[in-house]
Amino acid sequence: MGRREMQELMSDLMDNPPRTYSGALLAAIGVALLAAVGGLFWSYSISSKLSATQADLAEAKQKNVQLAADLRETNARLHVTTEELSRSLGITQKQMDDRAEQIVAREQAETQRLESAQKQTAAQVNAVQSDVSSVKTDVGGVKTDVAKTQNDLAGAMTQLQSIKGDLSDHTSLIARNHDELEILKHKGDRNYYEFTLTKGDKKPVGTVSLELKKTDAKKAKFTLVVYADDMRYEKKDRNVNEPLQFYSGKDRGLFEIVVNTISSKNQISGYLSTPKGAPAPAGF
Questions:
Q1: Pairing state of beta strands 221-228 and 208-216?
Q2: Would you write out the chain's pLDDT as a tens digit for each of its 284 residues?
């Protein structure tokens, strides 16, 4: 019997009381029994609820214990992960420090190399400047020598003789010996070929050929034949240092022969002078 049913029974007894004493007693006993039974049921109900609550509490405690264990395990894992992360960061930092040291060392090496290269370049520049100064000094000396040579050449040129050749109205500057011939060569306006001829020999000189026919050492005279451009020119009884002139070549340039010496062995020595633009013989 539930609580609500007992309440309804007691309400019914109060509304309809028994008419006799025995009935009243029975009624009271019944009410008491009903109250006792209701109390038992209420106690049982309370006990059931209390047991259920205790079970829930025990389950909650167990869950709390499990949660605490899980929390401890999570904390432990987190601690391990933190240590691993710290260790990893420590290695990375070491690598970064090593890398920084390497960069600094390389920069120092590059700086030293650059300083060494700059010193070497400066030394080379100083050496070049010294060489340039020496060259300037040498050039100054050369200029002085050239000026002196030019003065000497000018003085020597005044000693050369201008003699009229065997062609009309043409005067030539002649050399009377080898040294004067060297002066004419330095003048650079003509080509010069030295020769020595023996009587009876025909010898190529420059682009022509010469043949000595006769010599007279006492009178310093000689006779010479010139072969040029399929032509024959005889220069008979000519004097030493006399320009013997003839025209030769495609452009008909003026050629000159000067005999400087006549020996007692029927030999003569001298030179052939040709225009600067005249053809040169093979081998020149």
A1: antiparallel
A2: 555 666 666 666 556 655 554 566 666 676 677 767 666 776 767 777 777 777 877 887 888 788 778 878 877 777 666 566 556 656 676 777 787 788 888 888 888 888 888 888 888 878 877 776 776 676 666 667 767 666 655 555 555 767 887 776 677 889 999 999 999 998 888 999 999 999 988 999 999 999 999 999 999 999 999 999 999 999 999 999 999 999 998 888 999 999 999 998 899 999 999 999 888 786 65
Which CATH class for the 160-275 domain?
A: mainly beta
Distance set, CA 47 to CA 27, 38, 51, 137 (Å): 29, 14, 6, 131
Q: How far apart are CA 179 and CA 207, in angstroms?
A: 24
Q: Where are the domains of the chain?
A: 1-135, 160-275
